[in-house]
Amino acid sequence: MKRRRWGVLFYLWALWCALGAAAPCACAVGTEGVASGPEVQAKAALLMERETGTVLYALCETEELEPASVTKVMTMLLTAEAIDEGRIHLEDTVTVSAYAASMGGSQVYLEEGEQMTVDDLLKAVTVASGNDAAVALAEYVSGSEAAFVDAMNRRAGKLGMTHTHFANCNGLPADGHYSCAYDIALMSRALLGHDLIRNYTSIWMDSLRDGAFGLANTNKLLRTYPGATGLKTGSTDAAGYCISASALQGDMELIAVVLGSDTSANRFDTATNLLNYGFAGWTLADAAPQEPIPAVPVKLGKADTVAVCPDGSLRILVEKGQETAVTTGYTLEESVTAPVEPGETLGQLTVYVDGEAVAQLPLLACDGVERKGFGDIFGDLWRKMAMQS
Q: Which residues share a beta bridge with 61?
């Protein structure tokens, strides 16, 4: 009896092992992704097309992991926004604090009291991944690193980064500092919307301090991948090897995020595989309506009609070979009563591929239309009566 019981237990154990072997963890390192997907050697990965934000491949994309220096994508984003808004300028001189100079890890060896321009600090962050330069920038933009980190988290919230929390501006290990592949793609997409930043992320070699300190980019894809435009690497013992890699071929730019590779080579190989997968299989296609969309009649308005504009890009991502299969259709309000606010939704544009709906864009009022006052209405009535007499 006892032997039979042990036999049943052994059978159940063997069955459990067999089932486990047949269905490995979806987030295991070395997963090849979907049946026709790229080979991935990482804990998490994601491939996104920049213009439309379409996700082409994802593996454990919302798993919260340490991002290491890929954190600096957000630091660069807030710095670029401050420059665009005129709050700081590239030629501004920053005096390095003792706290910024104390940063370990990757650094450009800033000294307390040393002065460096925003331009050179941004170069130090993007090319050499300087932790000290990141803190110096953060303090200059927001007054302190703590205030800057608060701004980082607020910006993350606005971007929809629901699996991210920043504890510092440079990615050094810290409690409560995490992100995920999808969130990193979101902030990378936002960063690439600033043309200024491409002047830095595409640098392979440069120097600081009048040529006395050489810089070499930590992103080796700039030398090995056609059309590479950036973006940021990172690594710590806990995070493994990470990268947010971007590349532009033709008129399509892709973002490949890799988190938790066990070697630097696997990080770059995985990013290369993801980018190759995207460029080989997809392209951007024109989704503009074949016929002009008519204006919407306006009742009681100072204008009789209001033109409509699609809210978003009039290009969609399709599999290669489907470019000519794209068609559109739309629905509009029969009329609208003034006042009409600019951006008010007046209809919907639907994009089809081979007759199947794949995207919908709101149709918005291009301009505002004021409501007629009493004098306008009286004038219209007077003119109408004059014409009839």
A: none
